[in-house]
Amino acid sequence: MPERLGKSFALILVVVMLAGLAGNIPTKAGNKPMSLSDAIAKVKWFQDLKSEEKESLKSVASIRRAKAGEKIIEQGKSTKKIIVVLDGKAQVLVDGKEVAILTGEFIVGEIEFLDMSPASADVILQQDADIIEMGNLALYSLMDKEPRIGYLLMAELARLEAERLRLTNLRWKAVGN
To answer: How far apart are CA 73 and CA 75, in angstroms?
Structure first.
């Protein structure tokens, strides 16, 4: 009986491993990007969107797995996209000097999205992460077609930028400026 269980266990293990290699069972969290639908459903920035609006958002978004060390935003260059990092860590550099570490879920490229100027900082991933990328022009077009989406996304961006400005002010106060 134990020998039979051992063979059964070995067969199950082989099936699970093969299924994992074929992509049917995730082998480790983070090896494959999640689906775009799952990612959009997870993002705090999109929480107030109705399900049909989230579906519309999929038309301007893509998801991919980005690697540690990847520069997802480059200072002085135009990326022409806004990026949502789903769960990661990134170093933010201005003129080569670290100004922030971003962790968890965060948005980058929003300044270029708002003012159409090249990136004001480098953003370098410190760990592998799933990211959603949305082209600025496509997102503007969607926001024109669906004003409620535009209003909600812009309101969230305004809140985010206000939060970042407050943190900057606190840092300036702390160093005595």
So the answer is: 7
Give the CATH number for residue 83.
Answer: 2.60.120.10
CA pair distance 21, 14, nearest whole angstrom: 11
Joined together, the tokens standing for residue 173 give 């106060």
Overall number of domains in the chain: 1
Interval 75-98: pLDDT, tens = 999 999 999 999 999 999 999 999
Is the whole model's pTM more than 0.90, yes or no? no
Tokens coding 91: 């170093």
Q: What is the pLDDT of residues 133-152, one digit of tens each?
A: 999 999 999 999 999 999 99
3-state secondary structure 129-165: EEEEEEEHHHHHHHHHHCHHHHHHHHHHHHHHHHHHH
Q: Which residues contact 70 (CB under 8 A, 6 or more apart)?
A: 124, 125
